[in-house]
Amino acid sequence: MTAESAAEQPEGVLLDEPTTADLRAKVTEAWREFASAFASLVPTLSAGAYVDITLDPTASGTGAAVYSVSIRVLDDGVVEALAVGNGALPEGYRMDRASVADLVALGWSPPGVLPDSGDSFGLRTSVGAAKQLATIVSRTLRDVYGAPHPAFLVYLVHDDQDEPIETAPLATARHEPSIDEVLSLDDLDEDGVLSEALANAADEVVPLDERVRTVVATMSKTTVDQLQVDTDGDIGIRAGSAMVFVRVRDNPPLVDVFSPILTEVEPTEQLYVKLSELTNRMPIGRLYCAQDTVWASIPVFGRNFQATHLMLAVQVMTGLADELDDRLHGEFGGKRFFGEGDKPAPAKPDTKDADDHRPGMYL
């Protein structure tokens, strides 16, 4: 696939028509575009700028593990990079010896070797070596951390005061601050009460999880103590026949807004194509299938946390999940989160036999 033909493909689409798609070539080209965009970005950054790139854990199926790479531009064109190590990963998601060896072979120093690297792998280079750095970062995310496509990456460019820096996009990776361009706090609030409460919370130096609970409780017109929180610490929000969860992660700071749209669904090529098409039309977030479950996910960065970002993510997700579980269930079957009595699916003509052999369609 040439760069010209790749440029004609809509952003975010991972699958094309079955008769013409070469998925491996498309994915390879997407990573080349990401590396090229990253190499072009680094020389434009001033001293004190940071680039944080995170593999969206809800979209990649990595559970509680958050794989990330962060670069920092220093004085005199020096660039330092950190890549998450096993010390920041939960048991069951830590890298084996071969993966650690791969990181070292790519040029990363083991944790603690680079000053102030802590539990992370470190690397020091220069702005002039941006192409080589882009290759290392891309291969780390793809080959070691297992990112299937740059569209599964979320990135943030900011200064040393955590203020966002406007830059050109990193190919199909998701730029979190662009949410500000979609909706503002004033757009979300009609009577001023909600915006005042959240503004007060934003001004306080409080832990991320407390700020998130304050936002969700205020949106739900309830108290923090009355929020529905499960044993994993996820906040549950009922959305018609769907359920939306809000999860706070610490390292790196990240808030996941996600929903299991359908369970016990058969992963087919038609389903993947449909999810790809829908994701391409979404202003933020993505849809994906992991094993036999269709998920919707919108990540929100915890660094420089903005209440408007989380508010928009929750609003989009609650509306999206409640609409899509019915639509996709009607087309692909499977089970929605809540039972038929909550929101029955419309009767479908000429499908009686198919429905008869699938009793108990809902959880």
UniProtKB/TrEMBL annotation:
Q: Which residues form the TY-Chap N-terminal domain?
A: 29-153
Highest taxon of the lineage: Bacteria
Which stretches make up the TY-Chap central domain?
208-339
InterPro entries according to UniProt: TY-Chap_M (IPR054343), TY-Chap_N (IPR054344)
- UniProt-annotated stretches for the region Disordered: 335-363
Q: What is this protein called?
A: YbjN domain-containing protein
- Organism, scientific name: Winogradskya consettensis
